[in-house]
Amino acid sequence: MHITDLNKKKIIRQVSNQEYVGKNGDLFIFVVDLYRNQQIRKQLGKDDGRLHMTDVFLQGVEDTVLAVQNVVNAAESLNLGAVILGSIMNDPQKLITNLNLPPMTFPLLGLQVGVPTQNPQLKPRLPLSFTLFEDSYPKEVDIHKLDSYDKVVSTYYDLRDTNRRIDSFTKQVASKKMDKHITNRNQTVEVLHSQQLCLA
């Protein structure tokens, strides 16, 4: 969905809790859409079949994530900037209401696209030894093997033009944000069920 309505942008900004959302460039919300397929089946005289199943929803998630990345690639090929907004999940029900989404849909990711005013350094990625495995998943994680990566990430945050936090990867994983606490994100399963998704 291409969001142009100023009031809708304002609500998405509030949900995201990020001041720049919807203010410059174009704002898109990518929606997992099984409603369309439900309507097609209905018009062809069929019931909903497996549309309410979790595995079908996950297929929709996969397609939606691929669509987001493809739009990012296209935007960057045009020398535009793009920021993926997972923050729209801070209050999925509020977003569903704001966008007047029907059952069988779910807003998954936002995307802000525009002309960049900065040329920021790329965020350092985890070492391959922590992200690429051959034939089996190594179950023992040695936090000390992340020391050098933590230093690189801390330097990255220290040098950024905005968001001047000095942080490391392991501190982010162990941060209060990831501690047990109640947020609207805790309601995601209930919201999915109220949208008639992931029922079994």
TrEMBL record:
Keywords: Flavoprotein, FMN, Oxidoreductase. Gene3D superfamilies: NADH Oxidase. GO terms for molecular function: oxidoreductase activity. SUPFAM superfamilies: FMN-dependent nitroreductase-like. InterPro entries: Flavin_OxRdtase_Frp (IPR016446), Nitroreductase-like (IPR000415). It comes from the Bacteria. PANTHER family: OXYGEN-INSENSITIVE NADPH NITROREDUCTASE (PTHR43425:SF2). This is Oxygen-insensitive NADPH nitroreductase. It comes from Liquorilactobacillus oeni DSM 19972.
